[in-house]
Amino acid sequence: MTEFTPVEAIIGGGLIGIASVLLMGLHGRIAGMTGILAGILPPAVSDKVWRIVFLLGAIAGPLAIFLLTGAPVDFQNPVPIWAMILGGIIVGIGVNYGSGCTSGHGVCGMARFSIRSIAATATFMLSTFITVYVVRHILGVF
């Protein structure tokens, strides 16, 4: 079961918001993780340096918490690796059809009141609710 951690959630959400605003304000770019990642994969775009730095910063977060507080970041994964791989493939297909992911549409697009992003995020969330319900309550897995 996931613990309720409102303080950490507010801090994390605030940092995501600040990073999104800074990326838009300083570089005129949307902080969509899928688009950022796609820009460093072949055929890579010419502005891949900031994309690599952005992704490294996202990955380095748990390490920074450990270095600042000395407390290890607790991570538990009750889902088997095959399910994570399958989920990743399904999500990858979905972000391709949805022209982006929840970071770009949900954080940046909705903040700009983009109707397309609001519709995309609502679709992502509905799909997630249905998938979790089917997998947990109908199939009885996980």
Automatic annotation (TrEMBL):
It is found in: Cell inner membrane. The keyword Acetylation does not apply. The chain crosses the membrane at residues 6-28, 49-73, 79-97, 118-139. It comes from the Bacteria. The keyword Transcription does not apply. Its main location: membrane. Keywords: Cell inner membrane, Cell membrane, Membrane, Transmembrane, Transmembrane helix, Transport. It is a multi-pass membrane protein. Belongs to the TsuA/YedE (TC 9.B.102) family. This is YeeE/YedE family protein. The lineage of its organism: Bacteria, Pseudomonadati, Pseudomonadota, Alphaproteobacteria, Hyphomicrobiales.
